[in-house]
Amino acid sequence: MKRNFHLDELIGAILLGIMSLITFINVINRYFFKNSIAFTEEITVNMFVWITLLGISMAFRKGTNLKMTNLFDLFSPPLKKLAIIGGGLLGTFLFLFLIVNSLQEIYKNITFYKTTSEALGIPTWIYSLGTPIFSLVVIRELLKSTYRMLKQTEGKEG
Fold first, then answer.
1. Distance between CA atoms of 98 and 94, rounded to whole angstroms?
2. Cα 128–54–101 angle (5° rounding)?
3. pTM, entire model
4. CA nearest neighbour of 127 among 14, 44, 13
5. What are phi and psi of 116, to 5 degrees?
């Protein structure tokens, strides 16, 4: 069976590996030297947000996102289509809202606030870049999932 390559899965795996390594080193450091590496939390928390968004896109691709199937199965075919389209639109609007607001926040951080992270002094907008980028990936997978579900519903109708 041929498996398609998905960049978001690779990025997620790399981020998870980095997070695990950083956390492992921090635990060892705390255990043996009774001292923690303060900046590691800053990095892992931001990577966790990115991985969450990547996980959402993977869930839409694989059809494993949270659904109310017991209720959905009771719907008539036209109502199922309406629910699929409505869910797709609501999800798209949610992530578009997230993109717009995160881009506004990034713009403010670059131009006005010029805030930096506590531990490493990295401009906070760099950490925030993952939100609009990975939200676009989520929207792409959400729309593909919506289309796929509509086709499946039409196939069961006919």
1. 6
2. 35
3. 0.90
4. 44
5. -125, 160
Phi and psi angles of residue 57, each rounded to the nearest 5 degrees, phi first: -65, -40
Other C-beta atoms closer than 10 Å to the C-beta of 63 total: 11
Neighbours of 85 (CB within 10 A): 13
According to the model, what pLDDT value does residue 74 have? 92
Give the residues of the chain that fall short of pLDDT 70: 1, 157-158
Q: Report the pLDDT value the prediction gives residue 66, as an integer from 0 to 100.
A: 81
Neighbours of 153 (CB within 10 A): 17
Main-chain phi, psi angles of 32, to 5 degrees? -85, -35
Q: What are phi and psi of 105, to 5 degrees?
A: -65, -40
| Cα–Cα distance, 74 to 66 (Å, whole number) | 17
Separation CA 43–CA 14 (nearest Å): 14
Name the phi and psi angles at 35, rounded to 5: -145, 135
Name the β-bridge partners of 123: 116
